[in-house]
Write a structure and sequence with these properties.
- With about 180 residues, the protein is mainly α.
- About 75% of the residues lie in helices and about 0% in strands.
- The longest helix is centred in the C-terminal third of the chain and has 29 residues.
- The protein is elongated, with a radius of gyration of 18 Å.
Length: about 180
Amino acid sequence: GRAYWRIRELEKRLAATASLLKQKDILKEEKHRLQSEWLIVAGTMGHYVADLSQPLHVTENYDGQLTEQKGVHAHFEDTIVDGLWPSLEMQVYKDSEKLWEKEANILAGKTTLQLIRELAASSTKEIDELLKRDKKLPREDLKKATEAFRAQAIRRLVAGTVTLAEIWRRQSNWT
């Protein structure tokens, strides 16, 4: 329930740190300390953004406890993702790059709050599909389950990646 506010708090810290890093007369040691701080804050923010891209993080039924599917959270987030590795990594990269090229200007025109609300809303739309798929497939058949969840896992990872990249871009002058 705190992700929206925490992301924006961390974004303010990133902005302040980025501003200090832009100073011309900064000592080398201070610059390294600030760079380290920026990376830690950016990484922490990444955790919260990633949470919003996971459908089970935006529902009261976060582990299938309300639908008699206990353990679905770890199954989707850990077992499925691990089972799809390493092919998942390259697919997420390629799909993220395509989405970034298509949406970069649109993303840049949105506030952080708009970005994270849309990310959470897109995750919410995926909850029923995830739970329905989990009920159909035996979790023990990892090969079948990973293939059945592949597209959804990639979609969610891509959505989180692109949202996070836009937020980081604003505080880093990346292009």
